[in-house]
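Need a sequence for this fold. Nothing fancy.
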């Protein structure tokens, strides 16, 4: 399935618009595959007709001229030539930089399709780069993540993955696994002679070492996920506490409806907000109370669901309310259910009572956790709250530059499976099981690790991964 870099397979020619559709100074329409220079030569007239055709040009050269559909001029463009194997896909490639209007770019694409290209599928350029061995699957995914990154941390993590730190680490793991598998399989070949090419103690030692390495990668996902997906943050509390007001204040826009009527928010609202380098995925929820009405009841059920899924819970209470102490049992229950590293208690509406500080301290003393006094409406104390939110995601800063970090669910699951297989292998060794069974478990650990970088290719996985890309990438 994979070809070497020297002799890449040239797929059928495909074309796509590589830049977003809209009005801009420039746009890029690109082609890759067999015969793309010929297709370009048919529609492109150079400003200097004496120059060589595109098919006879060297790679990494730029050519100025006009595109023609028969005698009709389409646009004035720059054509970039990339000769196989020195291109993104390793095939022959052409990039046409044209003017950046939606109709212009469509016309240019149409011209290429009429002259022999097929429209590219989403992610097909990157898929070819992968299939031709130019990048591994991890790096292909990193490109997708980088394009979609909305915070600096997500972006940095993607860049690190693109550089190949994780690929290298997984490559080393595979080599060690291969070594152990090979020795066991040799034993199987000589099974009549009852030889061991490696003592069982040595094998256990090796498996333990592998378990440690896989384990630390699995563990890194706890943070890696926060960097790539953002910190899931649920804003919860009783009706009218000011949850929606706080959401709007953090987002700096009037996103959620705010009213003095308790029970305003029925369904949850999700929005992203970026503080410094970190992205928080905020969810404003329906106020928690005993609801008679069906819709509100369902909203509250969803609130509890969001609390369970959250990395961070902001519990908002109205410190100005006469019965503000009624929130204490709810806070205590939250702290009992979730580690306090996940819960921030926020006393809102400090502008409404004179003794807000005493009240806030009272709540802190009774619940045994820190309480932030704010006014969501007047935007008091919001800076401190944001800082607290950031520091709750402990150690995140140190991780920003970590090169070996698991950030994707797919990689995490494969590593978990590899860890299980290693554990099975170790137990089998300890139980003095047959070599064949041990070898089988080590082989499956090897396959799971291979799935991550794409050494072991699963067509369905590829379709999912590349299907998430834009057309033209
Ligand atoms: N004085 C004052 N009023 C506030 C503050 N925060 C919110 N409010 C008011 O409190 C009322 C309720 O605010 P919301 O943000 O709708 O409260 P909520 O928690 O989303 O309420 P539900 O969606 O019903 O659960 C509105 O009238 C807000 O203007 C604040 O810091 N100070
Ligand atoms: Mg609300």
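Here you go.
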């Amino acid at each position: 399935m994979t070809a070497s870099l020297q002799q890449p397979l040239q797929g059928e020619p495909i074309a796509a618009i590589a830049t977003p559709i809209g009005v801009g100074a420039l746009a890029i329409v690109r082609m890759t595959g067999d015969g793309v220079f010929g297709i370009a030569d048919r529609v492109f007239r150079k400003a200097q007709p004496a120059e060589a055709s595109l098919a006879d040009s060297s790679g990494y050269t730029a050519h100025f001229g006009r595109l023609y559909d028969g005698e009709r001029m389409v646009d004035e463009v720059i054509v970039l030539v990339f000769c196989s194997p020195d291109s993104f896909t390793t095939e022959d490639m052409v990039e046409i930089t044209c003017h950046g209007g939606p109709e212009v770019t469509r016309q240019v694409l149409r011209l290429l399709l009429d002259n022999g290209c097929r429209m590219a599928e989403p992610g097909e350029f990157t898929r070819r780069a992968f299939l031709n061995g130019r990048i591994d699957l991890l790096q292909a995914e990193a490109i997708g993540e980088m394009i979609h990154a909305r915070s600096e941390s997500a972006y940095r993590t993607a860049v690190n993955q693109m550089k190949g730190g994780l690929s290298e680490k997984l490559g080393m793991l595979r080599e060690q696994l291969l070594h152990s598998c090979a020795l066991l399989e040799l034993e199987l070949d000589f099974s009549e002679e009852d030889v061991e090419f490696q003592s069982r103690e040595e094998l256990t030692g090796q498996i333990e070492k592998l378990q440690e390495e896989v384990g630390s990668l699995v563990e890194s996902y706890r943070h890696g996920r926060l960097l790539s997906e953002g910190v899931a943050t649920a804003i919860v509390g009783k009706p009218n506490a000011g949850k929606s007001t706080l959401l709007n204040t953090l987002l700096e826009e009037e996103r959620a409806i705010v009213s003095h009527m308790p029970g305003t928010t029925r369904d949850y609202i999700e929005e992203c907000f970026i503080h410094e380098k970190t992205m928080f995925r905020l969810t404003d929820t329906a106020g928690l109370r005993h609801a008679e009405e069906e819709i509100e009841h369902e909203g509250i059920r969803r609130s509890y669901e969001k609390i369970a899924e959250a990395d961070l819970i902001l519990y908002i209470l109205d410190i100005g309310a006469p019965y503000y102490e009624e929130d204490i049992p709810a806070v205590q229950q939250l702290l009992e259910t979730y580690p306090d590293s996940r819960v921030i208690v926020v006393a809102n509406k400090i502008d409404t009572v004179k003794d807000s500080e005493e009240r806030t301290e009272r709540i802190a003393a009774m619940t045994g956790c820190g309480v932030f006094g704010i006014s969501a409406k007047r935007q008091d104390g919001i800076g401190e709250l944001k800082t607290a939110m950031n520091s709750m995601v402990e150690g995140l800063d140190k991780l920003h530059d970590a090169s070996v970090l698991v950030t994707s669910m797919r990689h995490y699951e494969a590593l978990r499976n590899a860890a299980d297989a290693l554990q099975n292998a170790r137990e089998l060794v300890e139980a003095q099981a047959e070599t064949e069974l041990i070898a089988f478990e080590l082989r499956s650990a090897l396959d799971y690790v291979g799935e991550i970088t794409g050494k072991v290719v699963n067509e369905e996985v590829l379709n999912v991964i590349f299907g998430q890309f834009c057309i033209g990438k």
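For context: The chain is about 45% helix and 20% strand.
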